[in-house]
Amino acid sequence: MEKLVLLMLLLAGICAVASDHFRKYHFVKDEKSWFDAQSYCRENHTDLATIESQEETEKVFKITGGFTDAWIGLYYDKENWQWSNGDNVSYYNWTSSLNCTSVDSKGEWVDSACHDNKHFMCYNETRESYILIDQPKTWYEAQQYCRKNYTDLVSIKNNDEDKKIKEKANGNPVWIANQERGKWNDAGCHNTSPFFCYNESCTDASCTKYHFVKTDMNWSAAQTHCRDKYTDLATVHSQEEAKQLLDILNISANAWIGIYRDGNENWQWSNGDAVTYNMRRTKLFCATVNPDGDWTDSVCHDKKHFMCYDNGKKLFLVNENKTWEEAVEYCRSNHTDLVSIESEQELQRVYREANEASSSHVWLGLLQSCTFGFWYWVDGAQSCYDNWAPEPRCQSGYNQCGVMTARSDSKWTEKPCTERFNFICYNGKWTGFVF
């Protein structure tokens, strides 16, 4: 199969500031019905508040400042409870069964008559960047193109987004992902039109998310929990950053972070990052951060609250044997792309997933270009990091792709792209190459 590789000039950005699930909440003291509150939130923010965990429930409860009731975005559509923004309902905090939902002074959800007037909660979510593709395609072709090259076909959630799309489209009809009828013009899905894709943008408030876990665990159990649920125990590179994080998460007691002392008595971060902060006390082997942002070594078996972080790159091991091209197609259809590895930290995360594979190796998003004499990540990742064993060679006449050994070690090697292995996909921002 012929491949056309479009080499793109990519710009890399770095950002890492605390944020809860990309959302900034706004408590509105005006009393409105649920429908009026929904309209207000969509016009001025993103939507009525969505709450997906006990953590978020507590945060919203604090913001309301003791008001007895405030609308949130949960409603009943005659068959199921739904969030106003379309998210799946995976967390419940009920006290009882009407058609709209408010949060009471205890932080519990109360079903209420939708026409009652209450205060309400809005949120702002990460903004997206929109890309107009001036190539007529059917709706299905447009969706496939966007998912392969960007994130997805654009969805319009409020008037502000609607205005942005209209401005970029210059009044021309374009495909969007929304299926609802109304002001948007529905058309036969096999008609051809230009269309909008979007990329999820990385802003200072959304790249790294921190989570404070109020369950007492020892350091090792906390590390396991963070790696299972998020990315790892929190990495904090300065006292100022620690203090800022503690203020945002409202932490009032010592909490485990990801720094520990190894067998050679050197301090290490759990995720493999370099330690640039000097520990003042070094008698013990694990460390906590206190409410003032100071780090203190502690007994590793003590049980404490802890901080995790999530860098937004979710990994998915697929226990199916596919060729490399089939793996790329699967990942781009169902997630973002085949996994790339840009650091020792990411290597260890991918290796933990690879340990669960049913094949001897797992495909990585590495492809060889013998013509130009280099290997590259197909998702566009730019990194000099590698873990080859040994350095691969170009083999004329063969398409070679990169794999990681699944269980013996985390080394990379090359295999013919037509061989079949398990593979690892990820969800995250896509900046890669089109085939």
Automatic annotation (TrEMBL):
What keywords tag this UniProt record?
Disulfide bond, Receptor, Signal
Q: Which domain of life is it from?
A: Eukaryota
Q: Which Pfam family, any one of them, does this sequence belong to?
A: Lectin_C
Classification via InterPro entries: C-type_lectin-like, C-type_lectin-like/link_sf, C-type_lectin_CS, CTDL_fold
N-terminal signal peptide: 1-19
Can you give the residue ranges of the C-type lectin domain?
25-123, 125-202, 210-309, 308-426
- What PROSITE patterns is this protein classified in? C_TYPE_LECTIN_1 (PS00615), C_TYPE_LECTIN_2 (PS50041)
> Could you tell me what this protein is called?
Macrophage mannose receptor 1-like isoform X1
The species this protein was found in: Acipenser oxyrinchus oxyrinchus
| Gene label | CLEC20A
